[in-house]
Amino acid sequence: MVTKVLLADPRGFCAGVEMAIKSLTWMVQVFEPPVYCFHEIVHNGAVVHAFEEAGVIFVEDIDEVPVGRPVMLSAHGSAPDVVTAATERSAVMIDAVCPLVTKVHHEVRRLAGRGYEIIYVGHEGHDEAIGAIAEAPGSAQLVDPRIGLDTFVASEGSQVALLAQTTLGLYEWEGILADARERFPDLWTARKSDLCYATTNRQAAIQELALRSEVLLVVGSENSSNTQALVRVGHNAGVPTYRVDGADDVDESWLDGIEVVGVTAGASAPDRRVQRVIERIDPSEGSELVKVTAEDEYFPLPPQLRRLMASLQALVEGGFSCRSPGQAGPVENDREFTATEALAIIGV
């Protein structure tokens, strides 16, 4: 019987996911459905399903978006041609890309422009990797950390740079980094790792859980790279580690004879699902928070969304102050409406 759950802190939503989810929530409140989103807004099945129920249609090709409909681009970053096509096709386009992914896109463009051949360390087929490589497909080569540098071919005498998908495991990045530095002594690398702060923090937290737990459960979806990285970190620490989407995925046989279970969540997993997993485990002594570090990062809503909401707010406030339902308002009675009265509306 499980006596205690050790609950990782930090876990779950990062600042980029918070921003993306809030952004799409605003979209479904402002516009009549359907609202379109290019790729899953974040890699979590429960979140995606909730938005689908609210009227969001997720597409894999921007041409699937009817001309004139509002569209959002996912947090993982999109190829330049996708951004251009979405802007031209949609009446309202909001790019919810995580700022940390934007930084990597910027570096790909900048380094390619300076003639570098770029090793981009990422997972084949991942949305983030696809978008980053598309910034400079002639200069950037994808290197999957599970395969290594054998697939990378540099021209003789070329300058080489190393960039990474933000959701990699530290163990994946550090191995490639060491190999690349040995192979290319003049290798360019960013002064600060491309790996997302949330990714590294959550990996540090599960390592701490592994020291005190007999089994580890990671809440998150199968297509979530950072969730899968947490599972591998747990396995590498020598602790049986299982990924679950939610409480229904918990196999009772995993807990046979187990007293202490560590629980964490990937950066796109809702905390409500984490709490339901704990309820399913039903530890006799409850749960204990294992705090590794504090996170207070905040990413503002996308600038396009902020401008849109400011415009709508101005329209609503203007309509409220200038009209009375069913009656002529100050605009219609402008002759009688004085400048003094107008100034009073704005507090003068």
Secondary-structure topology with pairs:
Elements: E1 4-9, H1 15-30, E2 35-38, H2 45-53, E3 56-59, E4 71-73, H3 80-89, E5 93-95, H4 99-113, E6 117-121, H5 127-133, E7 140-143, E8 160-164, H6 170-183, E9 188-189, H7 197-212, E10 215-219, H8 225-236, E11 241-244, E12 260-265, H9 271-281, E13 287-291, H10 303-322, H11 339-345
Parallel strand pairs: 1-12, 1-13, 2-3, 2-4, 4-5, 6-7, 6-8, 8-9, 10-11, 10-12
Structure characterization notes:
The protein has 348 residues and is α/β, with parallel strands linked by helices. The protein is built from 11 helices and 13 strands. Helix 3 links the parallel strand 4 and strand 5 (93-95). The longest helix has 20 residues, at 303-322. Mean pLDDT is 89; it is low at 339-348. The termini are far apart. Helices cover 39% and strands 16% of the residues. Among the domains are: 15-97, Rossmann fold, CATH 3.40.50; 100-189, 4-hydroxy-3-methylbut-2-enyl diphosphate reductase, catalytic domain (Cobalt-precorrin-4 Transmethylase, domain 1, 3-Layer(aba) Sandwich), CATH 3.40.1010; 303-345, no CATH class. Helix 7 packs parallel to helix 8. The chain has a 5-stranded parallel sheet, sandwiched between helices. It has a 4-stranded parallel sheet with strand order 3-2-4-5, with helices on both faces. The chain is flat, with a radius of gyration of 24 Å.
